[in-house]
Every structure is written in structure tokens, then in C-alpha cells.
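ok trying again, last paste got cut off:
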Amino acid sequence: MPYNVILEGTGQKGSNHAGIRTWTSLASADNFPAWSENHKHSIILAHGVSDEEAVALVQKTTMAAYVASAIKEAGEDRNVLALKLANISFLAQREERRVELASALQEALGDLLNVPKL
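nice, full thing came through this time. structure:
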């Protein structure tokens, strides 16, 4: 049975962007100590969890983290940013995630355009 590990990026070199959660499956728990040594720049949120628990934890990645990651990855290329934001919108299928995404976009765009916060 696979041994699931859930990571959260810190934004440091060797890690995903800050706040982005991912999961991976190791062959067994015996592989975890050596594997974790190579992932010190990420936060290990959980290990040894079921597939269902892993999916639930990854789904808790905030829309703000996805938007910040998209902006960072796109750099100055607004076409790439538009594509990445379109992809993120597919994650926001439930109403509460759409509201969260709208809020994250509003804040990120305000920061990009130097619009003062109200």
C-alpha cells in the first residue's frame, strides 16, 4: 500500500511556491525518512494518510496561494498570467471557492496596480 505524504510549499529554493499543497505517494513508510531529508524546504503537513485525506488536505490550498503562484510564474507575460488564472478558475467549482478566488484576485490586482486598500 502506498505511503502518502502531503507537502506545503514555502517559496524557498527547492520548494513549491508558498502555500501550494501537493501530495506524493512513496512505496512504503520505510522510504519516508530518506525521502523527507530531500524535502527540507517544504512543510510536511501529514504522512501516512489515505488517498481521501490527501485529496482533502490538498484541496485546502488557498486561492490566494494559487493566484500569488500564477503571478510569480507568469512574470511580465500577461498572456501566461491570463492562462494560469483561467486554469485556477476551474478549481473554484464550489460557491465558497469562487468567493475566495474573487477576493484573492481583487487583492492581488490591487497590489499589482498599486491601488490603495479600502
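cool. The CA atoms of residues 50 and 108 lie 34 Å apart. The first strand starts at residue 3 and ends at 8.
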